[in-house]
Write the structure tokens for this entry.
Amino acid sequence: MDHKINPWENVLAQLKTWAVCNSPWAIHFNSGSCNGCDIEILATLTPRYDLERLGVKLQGSPRHADVLICTGPVTRQARERLLRIYEQMHEPKFVVAVGSCALSGGVFQGCYNVMGGIDQVIPVNAYIPGCPPRPEAIIDGVVKLLMSQLQPSDGHQPDPQTAEAVAS
Amino acid sequence: MEVENKQQVNRFTVPIGPQHPALKEPGHFLITVEGEIVTDATVRLGYAHRGIERAVEERSWVQSMYILERVCGICSHIHATAYALGVEKLAEVEVPPRAQAIRVLVAEMERIHSHLLWLGVAAHEAGFDTLFMYSWRDRETVMDLLEGLTGNRVNYSANVLGGVKCDVDEAQADAIRQGLEFLEERTHHYLNVVTTDALFLQRTRGVGTMTRTQAELLGATGPTARASGVKRDVRVDAPYAAYDDYPAHMVIETNGDLEARFVVRIKELFESYRIIREVLDTLPPGELTARMPRRVKAGETISRVEAPRGELFYFIKSNGTDQPERIRVRTPTICNMASVVRLAVGHQLADVPMILVGIDPCFSCNDRMVIVEGANAERRSWTWEDLRQYGIEHYHQQSA
Amino acid sequence: MTTEETLTLANDLLVNWVWSAESNRPEPNRLDVRLLSSTDLMPMVVGLRVQRLGYLAAITGLDPGPESDEMEVLYHFCAGQAVVTLRVSIPRVGGAVATLSDVIPSAEAYERELSEMFGVAVTGLRKPQHLYLPDDWPDGVYPLLKDADLSALPAAMPAALPNISKE
């Protein structure tokens, strides 16, 4: 069945992408990590790396967040909380798994209380390896994720100004 | 007509956790309040429990080192040191003095990074984001030094069974000395801030006071205990690694309140700077490692070290094979948790975030939750951010 | 008091006086005291407290494996460099010890952990709920027992909730 494509939908989609990519609001969740990754994520907010100047704001509520930055090998106790947070986020939403534990369980693979990585529980968009990854690596990973959103697969060209702004 | 004049009793569930930028660990506090005053508190842990004590029984001695380093990212080196010292004792391996001295060097640098980290987190809890940003910026100095020495900013992995992996050359030693000069100047500034800033003192002086008897009875350890006058420091009571050659001095305060806990940790920074300089000036020459057998002699040993948060206790048992029989890891925050739970009672809700952060909780070391029970009435669910904000606004209003 | 004096005092108090116990010195700074009856535990602990000899540093459960009928619970008291360990033998299955938390409040956390990891009943414990293990942990599975059957753990939750699609 054919239906007319509303031209506003394209504009809104581009606007949403621009908003998300220019100033993503992030929420951080620790699903049972040793805190090594968490302190490096926190370090990205501090003056040397200062993620906020790129427009990335780390704040508290999942309902306001575009990006979920997740660490830890997901302990059984934490998986419920992780799912709840993921549910509460509105579309479009992205998940970034930070650190070896979040990728695959890391050194804790096979431990009895551990699920073995974020993607055992929720879909993940970006993986940032390291134990822990440096703040530069974390920023790089987040930027790559955002850049990939600026090149949607339906052939639309991203707005060059937006791409430049995000890359800087 | 009966007038109900009882104050409203509320039960708050305060989940600390994901939505908390500063307190990075997941945990659960259940706090009961009557009006403003906390009447009960409990903690429930389990979010970071990864089953490490079981895991090491299924891995070799060498593999266990890597897992134990990751019990906690903030105090990774001290865990590895406690483990290595214990296993070396069992295997009757004599570690070269240069390696022991380097262990002390890295341990003190870790203590610096941990205390500065805590200072920032505690400042954030109080609403002092400026101090948070400054202390973490300064912390980058010691992170760089650790990276130059060991290759990683966090999880340095400096220890191997039998010694250390990394050496210190003159250039690195000079860089460290320079870094320490900068940090020492900044530390003087921080000491000044926490002891003279009126708004800060409002949240810390006379708050969360724990007497010496309480501290001993509740089993508090580390700076939390020393702030209440308890003279306990494993580096002094039971020197390990090279602390016989580079003795530490205990930093004791007697007031037992939050301010005392701040002062103790900042003064411990000065102690660390002093010890590091001594190590650099008189580093013994020699080998970095001793040969370790793959199979460790059967036996039991106890290894105690002073982590930044307090006493870290390892019980290690070997059955003569290449896998540990049993490793018991008792981390400091579990001792201090009991004190938090007791301290919160009788205080205002607004003081709870600061009281908790005052013990420098490392949930991943312990992974605990606190639940406070109270009388009936509705249960409200607050995020930690709400609670923290509540504390900040409460004191803001008071000073207005 | 030196380490040697501390250990001698502890030995005199715990072994050579009222209670039946055996002791040995596995390392120069350690005294291991094997209780011959688990009911002596509390009086010994009170004795240590009265003498202000050390603080309870940790409680360790030790399981030799299914070939043995018994397991040990170790109570470590530290005083300076000296470590005095009280060793209590209890049945591997269905064993019980009395709580120390009435005398030493900080023991509560250690005892909760001992209980959930080894299945040791700690009588008199006020809040015996799980400390570390998750709420949905199956009963009767004690992770630190050598023959713990960890395959009985609840199956992993489905990878995603029904309305979450993995693209």
Residues 3-144 of chain C form a domain with the Beta Polymerase; domain 2 fold (CATH 3.30.460.80). Chain C has three helices and seven strands. Chain C has one domain: 3-144. The mean pLDDT of chain C is 85.
